[in-house]
Amino acid sequence: VVVLVHSPLPRLRALIQRCWGRLERGLWPGVFGDHSQPWGPALAMQGLALVPQGINDGGESSAVAPSPLESVVWMAAPKQRRTIEVNRCRRRNPNKLIEIKRNIDVCPECGNLKQKHVLCGYCYAKVKEETRLVRMEIYKKERGPFNAPTVETVVLYEGEKPTEEDEGKRIIERARKRPSWFVQN
Amino acid sequence: GAAWARGVLSWARPERWLASGSLFPLSCIHTSTSLQKIGKWEKKNRIVYPPQLPGEPRRPAEIYHCRREIKYSKDKMWYLAKLIKGMSIDQALAQLEFSDKKGAKVIKEVLLEAQDMAVRKHNVEFKSNLHIAESQTGRGRYVKRVRCHGKGMFGIMKISRCHYFVKLVEGPPPPPEPPRTGLDQAKEYVQQLRNRTLVHTL
Question: Is the terminal CB of chain B with fewer CB neighbours within 10 Å at N or C?
């Protein structure tokens, strides 16, 4: 059941608000045609399981039974609407404002901003990109999972030749100049 | 829009009007119906001051920029706007870059756009020599939608949007006000007491 009302007249809006209030409080269970639940007391009271029997008896018993409202736990509800001044005091309290961060520095490599305890985002991104291209070259050689050789890998850039140390290692070639941050050993 | 444009052109370029043989007053005017309403903040960039006299101190450049209908709550955006009020633009960009909020990214874009505008159009020499004089949020258009609960119940939720306004002023940021101490308050109280006089007397 979907009801959307756009700009109702004042009286119609009041009527809808009253209906909505009754729906919310559970005083109108018959709206959606669901009669499975027995109609219980509408107020949010705990500790009252039975429907008060005095309704059916009516005028038979003159003595009033002990009021069922004594052994009841009341739920918390706001008593008064919070004014905008009170709301502002709470929302603009210094403990709710965002604190300025004093741990921002300049990365010595690229000059972008970085946090002191975190890697520089730009440098990390550029290394990540280069690694992705190296892995693409590796994939071209291996052509699938579980084909990694049991020897070490060496990445060589343009104009570089394998040295004596790289005798038995697998060589991955990248068709570009060696980046300054990738030191060759 | 069309009437305003016609009025402007009629006194600005009368020779063009008379040059064309037949009278087609609207043919020279490019009428566009793209923008429904230009907001007040955007119009603040259009004010032109008269030239300054030689002895006057230099008026610092002011750049107004805003972004409309951002998909974010105005109350949450207000915290970010409050954060960067009064900072220099570099410090503001640094704080926003490492903030985890969704609105921080949007405000950063707005600040960069405004900085670019300042350098290109508003005759600002150094792009770092700007500070944020005003930064405010406004309420955008809300849309009501149905939110389904259990047991066939429904609620009406509102999808909120906000505007963000910023004013950059050339120059270093103003020094922050020193916090009011008890001594200041006491002095003000004593001064108030001393200012009392007798009214309607000699």
Answer: C
Residues of A within 8 A of B153 (CB-CB) are 23
Q: What is the value of ipTM here, to two decimals?
A: 0.71
The maximal CA–CA distance of chain A, rounded, in angstroms, is 111
One digit per residue, pLDDT tens: chain A, 185 residues?
555 555 557 777 788 788 778 777 777 666 665 555 555 555 555 545 555 554 555 545 555 566 666 778 999 999 999 999 999 999 999 999 999 999 999 999 999 999 999 999 999 999 999 999 999 999 999 999 999 999 999 999 999 898 998 889 999 999 999 999 999 87
Which of A146, A145, A151, A173 shows the shortest CA–CA distance to A160? Answer: A173
Which B residues in the span 62-91 are in contact with A, Cβ-Cβ below 8 Å? 75, 79-80, 82-83
Whole-model pTM: value is 0.69
Owning domain of residue B76 = 59-170
Q: Provide Rg for chain B, Cα atoms.
A: 25
Kindly report the CATH number assigned to the domain that includes residue B121. Answer: 3.90.470.10
- Kindly determine whether residue B80 and residue A98, on different chains, have CB atoms separated by under 8 Å: yes
Reference A6, options B100, B27, B145, B7; nearest CA is B145
How many domains in chain B? 1
**What is d(CA A8, CA B145) in angstroms, rounded to the nearest whole number?**
16
Flag whether B31 is in a domain: no
